Amino acid sequence: MSAPRARQLSARSLIDASDPGIGILINTPTGHEPDCSGLSAVSTEATEDFTAPSTRADMTQPAAAGPLVTWAVDGESRSARWRTANERPMPVRVEVVDDSLTADDANRMASQGVAMLWLGDFHNARQILNALDRRLGGGKRKTAASPADGFYRHRQSRSHRARILGMLLVPLNPGPVVPLRRSPDLRAAAQEAYGEISEPSVVSLHELVGAIGAHEWRRNGVPVAALQARIHPHYGTFFPTRSEYVDLVALAPLPATTVAFDIGTGTGVLAAVLARRGVQRVIATDNEPRAISCAAANFTTLGVQEQAEAILGDMFPAGRAPLVVCNPPWIPATPHSSLDSAVYDPGSRMLHRFLSELPDHLDPGGEGWLVLSDLAEHLGLRTRLELLEAISAAGLTVLDRLDTKPTHAKASDPNDPLFAARSAEVTSLWRLAAT
Ligand SMILES: C[S@@+](CC[C@H](N)C(=O)[O-])C[C@H]1O[C@@H](n2cnc3c(N)ncnc32)[C@H](O)[C@@H]1O
Question: What 3 state SS string does the chain have?
């Protein structure tokens, strides 16, 4: 395999200075607080102790019925449908609470694994959620034995946070409406995250607040300098709040302008960049229905719908192309929720599949563009040698490598638990060809 030639792009000229930070998925309570892998991470609402069947929202299908949450009022059993947009576990033990609940009570109940179905004032519920969150912030951070140890500790604490915050529940009725005093109009946000609500349901307030943030992102869009336009992410779709990797795709020399595949398209941002660069036909795939409807909507908004098509599917579409692009999840670790899976991929399965199946999908003389952060290398989760060996084992050779350094805030925040790795991170576009 030929030695890769690294080219450092000028981050300053590439990055929109207003960019808040990192590529994230949209479900955090604020809608824009990225989670653990930081410059890479998504919100982790923990599902480690997953106890319920998947009720993941698929906006292209009628909403699947979830299991029933049950609780007792005056000794009488009540129930409602458990709904989650993010494969959250259904709480096993539920007690009804109201405005008389103190933050200390809430903290104690959540720590004991008792979920609280809030039937008081909506704003008070949010205050309790914030109070729970503040209590989780404290505590002395133990020194990590290694970057990998630091990473796992960080994920553990995010996971714990998500579990505790997920213990506060609210009713969600057809409308969708939260039948609580002073509840805001959540129709659009709840519809986008959960789909149709056809019967009385119960959701996590933490997740619902995330849906509100996600709705704002979708409405306002994210500026993408390479498109000179905004991309509008849908709930649960990975989107480019850090845009340097998009700029790599905007600048790499095109091997052809006839056809390109974009594998794991997310919002469709890379496919749209290729279309704007003059590629006549771009076939974009993703195995997430939410991503497909999001990409299709963005193609239309950006006016590239005649060139770019979003197809639900696993990895490659049929046939071959002179250019195949892929930005796979880049941290080899277990996702804790469906929203995590755009970033975390155990054993780097998508990366390995992209490399090993690429030669069968490239036209003679074609190129595969692998967009990959090396954060996992700095965290001790993958080595550069493993990557180079996988490239070589797939019968691929490296034509070139374009590098860029992330400029998001966490990369320069020494208080961030993953600062050492984040500050060293480089994102690369590997130009690969079949040997
Ligand atoms: C890191 S995100 C990249 C999204 C988008 N290409 C971008 O650059 O912003 C990875 C994407 O791959 C998708 N994905 C994961 N496994 C996949 C598979 N087996 N087939 C197709 N898409 C997959 C995820 O749903 C996610 O949208």
Answer: CCCCCEEECCHHHHCCCCCCCCCECCCCCCCCCCCCCCCCCCCCCCCCCCCCCCCCCCCCCCCCCCCEEEEEECCEEEEEEECCCCCCCCCCEEEEECCCCCHHHHHHHHHCCEEEEECCEHHHHHHHHHHHHHHHHCCCCCCCCCHHHHHHHHHHHHHHHHHHHCCEEEEEECCCECCCECCCCCHHHHHHHHCCCCCCEEEEHHHHHHHHHHHHHHHHCEEEHHHCEEECCCCCCCECCCCHHHHHHHHCCCCCCCEEEEECCCCCHHHHHHHHCCCCEEEEEECCHHHHHHHHHHHHHHCCCCCEEEEECCCCCCCCEEEEEECCCCECCCCCCHHHHHCECHHHHHHHHHHHHHHHHEEEEEEEEEEEECHHHHCCCCCHHHHHHHHHHCCEEEEEEEEECCCCHHHHCCCCCCHHHHHHCCEEEEEEEEC
